[in-house]
Amino acid sequence: MTATDKEKLSPRALIVWAAGVLCYTLAVTGRTSFGVASVDAIDRFHINAAQLAVFTALQLAVYAFAQIPVGLLVDRFGPRKLMVAGAFVMALGQVTLAFTTSYPVAILARMLIGAGDATAFLSVMRLIPAWIPLRHAPLLGQLTGAVGQFGQFLSAVPFLSLLHATSWQTGFVSLGAVGVLLALAAGVLVKDSPEPEADASAARTASAAKASAPTERLGVKKILANVLTNRVCWHGFFIHWTGLGALVVFTLLWGLPIMTLGLGLPADQAGLALSLGTLASVAVGPIVGLLSARFYNRRMQIVMIFSITGWLGWLWFFTSAPTGVLWAACLMNIIMGFTGPVANLGFDSVREKVDRRFVATGTGLANMGGWIAGMIGAQAVGVLLNLRAPDGNYDWSDFGVAWIAVATVWACGFCGMWLTRDRNVRRYS
């Protein structure tokens, strides 16, 4: 492959990337499916708000804390194997959730879904530097996040409709079946590297020979030491925390209850509002990718502008939005979709500045931020709701007070982003 060839975005590269994105989209569908089924889950498992929040908190805990181990595995074994294995694990979790009526077993099922989900995004992020020319990488990175979020639309509209038209079992078994099919497709279409097989074999032999020397061995401890002490990775962590935390809390658990129980909307209208947020994210994602490529020294400032805009929207939503009105829910979801893609800007810096040998591990650390924020925020909202309304009759004001917990979590991430910034970055003139 010539230097000129490496700068071209080949059809084969796009096929590999698209197959990876399809797996990621399904992962997002599985991740958000419980959010649209949360009201049904209260009745199915006979639980309160705090117990409901445990589903999402533990799922996100598994997802978040699996990021570094999965990153190590992706760097070691390649994205294809991890992507396929993760899709099968998610499918197992969905089928288990479909048939159980036991609260502990259902919790375990969501934890399996979180573990399988952890492989999808990191695998695609590892495929991008292997297949995509550097100048196209920020755009394809944002498109990955944007297209992947279409999975939220799939859970908010078709899955929710299927759930209500058929049954709990049919809905979640269907997700598991599609997961198996996509796992098989990824196994066929995805390849870790564009190198020809003969060249790849020779490269692996040479790499193994090189690694046999003790001075050249790059073990787990060295990888972790490089990643955990890397300011770029931690800055990406807090960018992700700041940009994604509130969105995670809303879309994965509390969005539908807020709009149905609090705002007083029917479930189908709430699903429509969620889908508009997804469409906004898909539309804005490529624009954010272009901004990231053009203003790479000002990524933190871009995150700050978008994130503060989002929180001004939240302030209006919980203090001034009229109850029972669809447009208010639609507008807030669009604002979330508009501001959410900036959470991925930290990944661009990791991909550009971190050694490729452990770029998946570094991306894993960065990707933990938003999910840890979501885990903390989701559980805190459940606790505050129980304190406000122990009888389970939540009203609009209860959700507004509970959302203060999410604002507090966001503020912590904002401070972390500021403290980990690169103070030596040259500003654009």
Helix and strand run: HHHHHHHHHHHHHHHHHHH
CATH architecture: Up-down Bundle
- CATH fold-level label: Growth Hormone, Chain: A
Report the strand count: 0
SS strand fraction = under 5%
* CATH class assignment: Mainly Alpha
The tally of helices reads 19
The CATH H-level superfamily is MFS general substrate transporter like domains
| Low-pLDDT segments | 1-5, 197-217, 425-429
Percentage of residues assigned to helices: over 70%
Radius of gyration: 21 Å
Mean of residue pLDDT?
Answer: 85
Structural class: mainly alpha
Largest sheet: none
Return the domain count.
1
Question: What's this, in brief?
Answer:
81% of the residues lie in helices and 0% in strands. The chain is mainly α.
